[in-house]
Design a protein that fits this description.
Length: 244
């Protein structure tokens, strides 16, 4: 079953490009991904199609009004749609979200802008919200594109021949090991010898160690207890000097 993704945004033109090339272009052409981008102003009332207003309580910037957001989502959502608001002040988007949403029949993504969205729209719609990282973007559009890419690649058939890479990084709780390709020597740097001539077992052991070492260095938060123990067994943890 194809995944339908509806995006509600003030800037539909931003979505032209990223989904017209490469794997996602093919997925759309093959009918596995049905992407529809909607201009939020379509659901604004009045001649000026106003969608924002000043925040109650004061403060800088503008807030997207609940009414056009709710009308937009209610117009495009089917009965089983997952509705997601992209916002900086939200739980982090993770691979688990991508995995769950790739199983949905429809995903409706609402791109926040300015100082955000009237809280009541999120409550009325029963929407989830996610942030793609601890930094502030000018709006939710680029975040929506990141979410679409991460979700779409998990839809069956989208990756085709690339399918082996579906669930590498993160799914096993460690980062991917480093990769090398020809030539065997580049600007004086050789590919690790074990990868050139080693046995399958030796290569697997080298890769596991390298994956754990970089996870420890860059993303120790990803390691579970068994992985910490494995790091210790492999001598990857700094040795503490005995007290006294
Ligand atoms: N809008 C602004 N910053 C964002 C972020 N980090 N993630 C999602 N939406 C955003």
């Amino acid at each position: 079953m194809p995944l339908r993704i509806d995006v509600v945004t003030l800037f539909p033109e931003m979505f032209v490009g990223p989904f017209d090339a490469s794997i996602l272009r093919r997925a759309r052409d093959e009918g596995r991904l049905d992407l529809r981008v909607h201009q939020l102003r379509q659901w604004a009332r009045g001649r000026h199609q106003v969608v924002d207003d000043y925040p109650y309580g004061g403060g800088p910037g503008m807030v997207l009004m609940a009414e056009p957001i709710c009308r937009a989502v209610e117009a495009v959502r089917g009965p089983t749609a997952v509705v997601v608001v992209l916002a900086a002040s939200a739980p982090l988007f993770r691979q688990e979200h991508a995995r769950a949403w790739a199983q949905a029949s429809q995903l409706v993504l609402v791109c926040g802008h300015y100082e955000g969205i009237d809280e009541r729209a999120i409550e009325v719609l029963g929407a989830q919200r996610v942030s793609i990282g601890d930094y502030v973007l000018t709006g939710g559009e680029l975040a929506a594109m990141v979410v679409i890419d991460a979700v779409a690649r998990l839809v069956p058939g989208v990756l085709g021949a690339e399918a082996s890479s579906i669930e590498e990084s993160y799914s096993a709780g460690v980062l991917e090991y480093p990769q090398y390709t020809r030539p065997v020597e580049f600007r004086g740097r050789r590919v690790p010898e074990v990868l050139v001539g080693g046995s399958h077992a030796a290569i697997a052991a080298w890769r596991r160690r390298a994956a754990l070492a970089r996870t420890l260095a860059w993303r120790p938060d990803l390691l579970d207890d068994p992985a910490w123990e494995e790091c210790a067994r492999l001598g990857l943890l700094p040795v503490r000097a005995p007290d006294g």
